[in-house]
Each structure stands twice: as C-alpha cells, then as structure tokens.
Amino acid sequence: MKKQNLITKILVYVILGLFFIFTIFPLLWLLSLSLKTQIQAFSNPPILIFKPTSENYINLIFASGFLKNFLNSLIIAISSTVVALVIGAPAAYGMLHLKRKNRSRLFVLTLLTRMAPSMTYIIPFFIVFSKFGLIDTRFALVVAYQTFALPMVIIIMRSFFLEIPRSLEEAARIDGATKRETFIKVILPVSAQGLVSTAILTFILCWNEFIFALVLTRRHAATAPIGITNLMQYEGTLWGQMGAGAIILMIPSILISVLVGKYIAKGLMAGAIKG
Q1: What span, in angstroms and rounded, lies between the C-alpha atoms of 108 and 112?
Q2: Residue 107 falls inside a structural domain
Q3: Which of 2, 14, 149, 261 has a Cα-to-Cα distance from 84 of 20 to 30 A?
Q4: 110 located within any domain
Q5: Domain range holding 240?
Q6: What does the mean pLDDT of the chain come to?
C-alpha cells in the first residue's frame, strides 16, 4: 500500500513538473527575447547564453509611443471596472429581490450575454460609434467593455450577496432603513471582500481585451495590446520590442496576482457552493 502511494505521489509530481515547464517555458523565452538584440533574436540555432540588453525596453517606451498605449489601457480598464461595479452591484442586489420566476429568467439572460462572443457586438458598436464620431475614443471602449464586464460583475456579486444572512437586512429595516440605505450602509460593507475580488477580475479582463480595441480604435485611444501589434511593420517585425511589450503588459496582472491573490481565488470560487 505504501509503495502504491509513493508511486502515485511521484506520478503527481512528475505531471505537475511537466505542466509547470509547459507553462513557464514560453514566459522565459519571451523574457530572453526581450533582452536580445535583433541579430541575436534571429540567430539559428537560438542563443541561450548572451549579454542582456535593455535596448528593446528603452526604444519601446521612449520611441514607439507604447507608453501612451499603456496609459490608455490603464485608464480604460480602471474606468470600465468602476462603471461595471457602480451599475452591476446594485443590479445583482436588486435581482435577488425579484420574484423567483423573474429572477431566474433575468439571471439566465445575464449568463447568455456573458457567453456571447465579442464578434456579436463589434459590428453594431462600430456602426453606432461611427455615426456619433466616437471611433478611436476611450469612451467608446469603456461602453463596449460593459458587454462582458457588467455581466461578470452581476454574476459574481450575486453569489456574494446570496451568502449574506437575510437577518441583517431585516434588522436594518426594523431600524427604519430604506432598501437603498440597507444596500449602501449594510450590504456593501459586509461584501467588501467580494467587491475587491470582483473589481480585480474585471480589471484583468478589461486589461487583456484585444478584439474591441482592434476594431474601435485607430491611434489616439489604442491600448497596449494594440501597441504591441503595431510593432509588426512593413520593414519587418521588431521581435525584441514585442517581447518587451508583452512583458510590460503582464506586469500589472502579475503584481495583482501576487499581492491580492486570495481575493482572486475568492472571486473565482464565488457561487461554487450557493447558486
């Protein structure tokens, strides 16, 4: 029995090790690419031992306009997250106070909008925004991002609100609080951890978005992922700078995962026990 358990543990560790190598290898290769010169990047066979250079990062930030794209991504992701929380949290709370039949229908409709592919919304958004002169604006992207950010906020926050005892609401109403006061002064403070985890997940989702930004922006409102693709030029692809851009793009997500990883886990697990 002990021998069988030992073999099982070895197999588990081997599988986990292979999975770790499979996932970490592209990141290491990307990092090494960002630290190579253009000649080193195209060497065959690939150079594994080389003198790192910061040339790609310097050129990317100060010469390519990527810094503006990075700032656009930051502003748009934060704005989209705030808008989704301001609208989605009260919507999720109000959904729980509907009749059971209407509540189920509305929740299913929310799920359907979340599962719809981005291409479903791109053409209507492009036509409407073109007529109103909103193409290549941050406002357009913030509105477009609500198609996936808002449903996710509603779904996750609904799960957190379900975990709050109804006795808290009843006690607030006995004290004379209205539904609005109960939500702001009682429900939101109690579900603060849920708000944080939902905000983090929404921010990461908006930060990594590509399709809407590709179609609805040109130059002024282009985000960081679009800035990276712009490095594929007619004269040739700047692979070193693309690698540097990808590394910079990952930094916010990595920092968030390291600093507040427990909140992300909480958000991902929301609704696993209660529906």
Answers
A1: 6
A2: yes
A3: 261
A4: yes
A5: 55-269
A6: 83
